[in-house]
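=== Structural record ===
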Amino acid sequence: MKDQILFEEDFMGFAIGEFPYDKDHSAAGEYHYVVQEGNHGRWTDQVCNFRYNGHGPSWIITGDKEKHYMEQCRIEKGLPHRIFPTLQTGSVFWKDYDYSVTVRRLSTKGMAGIAFCMNDSIDTLVLSMEYRDKAQLAYRHKEELTVLQSVPFVSDADSCYTLKVSVMGDRAECRINGQLLFNYSSSLISRGGKVALTADCPTQFSEVLVTAEETTIQEIREKEEREKERIKALQESYPSMKLWKKIDFKDFGTSRQIRFGHLTGTKEWYVVIPQAQKRVDRDAYAHISCLTAIDLDGNILWQRGEPSEKSSVLGKISADLPCQVYDIDGDGIDEVITAHNFKLLILDGRTGEVKRSVPTPLSDEADETIIGLPYGIYAFDRINPDGIRIANFRGNKRPSDLLIKDRYCRIYAFDSELNLLWKYQSPKNTGHYPMTLDINGDGRDEVLAGYTLLDADGVPVWTYPIDVDHTDEIVAGKFQSGSDKGYFACVSGTQGFFIGDFQGNIVARDYIGHAQRVSVGNYIPEKPGFEFAVTNFWGHQGVIYLYDDHGNLLWEKENERNGNVLAPVNWLGNGVDFFLTNADPERGGLMDGHGDIAVSFPDDGHPLLCCEAMDLCGDDRDELIVWDYHGLFIYTQSDGEKKTSYHPVKYPCYNASNYRGEYSFPDQSYLTFSENTGEESK
């Protein structure tokens, strides 16, 4: 008999008000870990508002001194893809339970119900009342909603309804007000899982109760404890994180915009920290107001502009800033390539003095032809660069050209002396950070700008058959085991995660909501080929997916956090890659190819907002860098510096971006292609 309480909630432990949410919600959570301050109780909201800040919470606690309700407030649907506000609790180990909730529909212009046997917020079964006239049992997965059973059922906005699901083995009985509506069997039920409240129109929930047999609860607790012990043993088998450096940013801190380089021409690493102001409309025209160069002990090498601790300057910029560190002139000393006050600048890395400058291009195209303009007007006469990329368009021995872009439409190529080589205005969205790579072996880089491939002269070659949304990240390489054929892998918002060949054909695709970040590495060394780690954001966020080298899904899981950066990490130095999620000490850290946190962050008060991975100690293994506006911590391995024979090829630090697909390959051959433009070698 299921008479023992596994979970109970009357919401009286919450004060009347808003359930915690990101009040400044923006794209910052794509690559910043944004903590939603406040009392969460035992609940988690993984479904963020698709819109930018200013639209209020999804959930509020309302009622009076006698009784509280959790009320869902949102009414927008399908913006721009399926979003179901969902407030979840429990664990994936819950099973064989009775789950009941009292529901009052404040609106019948949508659905209201309960989710159960949940793996994540878009991998769950749902019992719901739909509009005024039916009840249904459905399975939500990614972008698909499959109705499993449906019956006529009249509901209104004046009555309360008790929704109850009884789970036993692979069978679930679903009732409303005691009436048995559905009796369904499936492996989706036998897997068990979390429970949730869910509605896409105003709805009040109360009297949440989950019960099970005493032996079942004991079994659940034992499984949860065994899982903790398993993860503890796994983590003890690897070097842990040891704090190596700690830097006070004083008044020159920033969000996820810092750059690394060798500013003095030595092996010593320096950090370039840009601060930026937002202009005109959110992040559409971010303007670098200060650049500070420091060493790894926090000593200032030089500073340009005026630093500030004001939130208007330190605010989470949800865009790239035009700043890279690279030896563009080949003199052995890194320069800082940046833009300021509508000038493209090359700065001496040692002093910050200007070595070369040129005005940014004029915005001479008709505003109505430019994609992505706030208010339909380009705000300035000259281009405000959105990002900078180092490339090789002229076929030199080393990259010595630059690519800059506006927000979503125009691309400009320059040589190392800042002469304009070409420009391109795209009829499709260029995405955030075009990929440059020599895919045909002629020594000159092509450009994948959003969905369109340009040759080294900026001339379109082909385009993927997608016309909407934009590409957030791109990674390229010889991904597939035993094949010399090259591919791009892209995450493109509502258009999902897809793999495309170098001829413009999409060969694999998965719609996962808003696909946001992607990386490729040797995450499961016992499997042939490489694996792709992918995550989503807007709407149902924080689900991590792992795919094989052909784009087949291996697993998905939710770490109930945002800001998962997925950067490959060479922590062990033996050819096995982990990937970096976020800096949260409870749920973040380095995840392995089986979805386990193999290395966790210490709970030492370190910054949580930003994280990155790169080799700073020089022992071939990666360090982990975490920071916020106030300071930076660097962690290395607890077993000390070790030379290894494994030297993975990773994204060069001189092309830093918040919108680059990350990769880790054993050597450069995985990024070297022949004149047959990525066709299979004969």
